[in-house]
Amino acid sequence: MEQKWLGTAFDVHHLGGTFGQVPENDTPFPNRRARFWLNTYGFWTDPADDDARVAFVRGMSADMDPFATGGHYVNFQGQEQAGHRVLDPREVFGATKYERLVAAKRRYDPDNIFHINHNIPPG
């Protein structure tokens, strides 16, 4: 029997230890000074649940905003479509890290074959 994930939830990721010891600009990973990452999400199949599930995720996000440092992790972002908060990768990574990522993309994927993600175009 196939098990399906249904409902809403959140993960709290502790980022102390070695993670926090890597200098901020050594990798493109954003906001290493954060002590925690929060990932709030929902999974459901019935469109009748849309309003309640989306309200939970957005409400949780709004409730936590006063405690946030403002950093984002692109792998926790939702689909880039109507109704979802879409972040500009330049905002997530900052100008210097973003330019490094564009340079890497230009070198290793100039035709933008790997684009079905939170894409960084090769420029």
Characterization of this structure:
The protein is of the alpha+beta class and 123 residues long. It has 2 domains: 7-78, no CATH class; 88-123. It is built from 4 helices and 2 strands, in the order βαβααα. The protein has helices spanning 18-21, 50-64, 89-93, 95-108, and strands at residues 7-14, 36-43. It has a two-stranded antiparallel ribbon with strand order 1-2. It starts with 6 loop residues before the first strand and ends in a 15-residue tail after the last helix. The mean pLDDT is 84.
Task: Write a concise synopsis of the structure shown.
With 123 residues, the protein is an alpha+beta fold. The protein has helices at residues 18-21, 50-64, 89-93, 95-108; strands spanning 7-14, 36-43. The chain has a two-stranded antiparallel sheet.
